[in-house]
Amino acid sequence: MAYDLIGDIHGHADKLTALLGKLGYESRAGTWRHPDRTAIFVGDFIDRGVQQLETLEIVRAMIDGGHARAVMGNHEFNAIAWSQIDPANPGQHLRRRNDKNRRQHAAFLAAVGEDSELHTEWTEWFLTLPLWLDLGGLRVVHACWDSAAVATVRNILGGALLNRDVMPDACRIGAAGTSSFAPDGTRSEAGSDLFLGIETLLKGIEVDLPHGRSFFDKDGHERSSVRTCWWQQSPVSYRDGAMLPASDRHILPDVPMPKQAVPGHDGGSPVFVGHYWMTGLQTPIEPRVACVDYSAGRGGPLVAYRWTGEAELAARNFVASH
Ligand SMILES: [Mn+2]
């Protein structure tokens, strides 16, 4: 099999068509296609860019024509939650319509018209996107392939698809208001099992710093938790396993993270993700893990990985829109 894994587009259709052209796809009869390759999108089609509907139309036509597959990103998940009333709080939506959330979603809302028929049509389509794809030789998920999270979500949903009925449970955040792991590997009052599993799959893993410590990130915000490089093999220290620029890592303690926060690649087939706003050199992050998000949503190129069956991934197989 031959697949082209394509990163987070975030409303930049021009980058998408440039990349598809470079990969040898042609636009014919209303859809982009390749004679013998299939595209796989890692999610995050919407928000940020000015070509929200153009992006969605291209992707949907490719999927409908059998020329592409896709998984759901956290932005599509949030869009579904934005569109749906919270049965426990009538008058509110599953994703709170506050200023911060509205700013993040503004480009999409402007494109569809909030609460319009078009808005409903696209959020219904988002529900057709699976949370992961396991195609035997390769696996695809938006942020983190944690076997425990995949198993939990699969058991609850009976597969990889969400629906409107399970969305309230999928959005049930705990009293702590966070999904991070405590330093001892537990999560207290952290929400429903479905919520926690989906958080891991679509947003990755966060862990609290030990002993109530905190640090100031590059934007000057005080933070008491960090996102982890989930693909590393445990044991790994906070300093080595946190997703922070190398220049900032010395802020973190040189003590082990709980293993739940760094499940590592499980030794099975290669895993492709997006989500992490990578910059610089396009290269696998582990021999069997590659991130194809190189920040197309904020000035970077849209990136693809051309996969042709290899178990060990290679930097030479990345292709960028510019
Ligand atoms: Mn994302």
Characterization of this structure:
There is one protein chain. The chain is of the alpha/beta class and 322 residues long. It has a domain at 1-145 and 269-322: Metallo-dependent phosphatases (Purple Acid Phosphatase, chain A, domain 2, 4-Layer Sandwich). It has nine helices and 15 strands. It has helices spanning 13-22, 52-64, 74-83, 99-112, 117-126, 147-157, 167-170, 193-203, 238-241, and strands at 3-6, 26-28, 31-33, 38-41, 68-70, 132-134, 139-141, 206-208, 215-216, 222-223, 225-227, 271-273, 289-291, 303-307, 318-320. The strands form five sheets. It has a five-stranded mixed sheet. It has a four-stranded mixed sheet with strand order 6-7-12-13, with no helix packed on it. Strands 2-3 form a two-stranded antiparallel ribbon. The longest helix is centred in the first third of the chain and has 14 residues, at 99-112. The chain is globular. The protein binds manganese (II) ion. Residues 8, 44, 73-74, 142, 275 line the site of manganese (II) ion.
Q: Can you give keywords for this protein?
A:
about 325 residues, alpha/beta, Purple Acid Phosphatase, chain A, domain 2, 5-stranded mixed sheet, 4-stranded mixed sheet, 9 helices, 15 strands, globular, binds manganese (II) ion
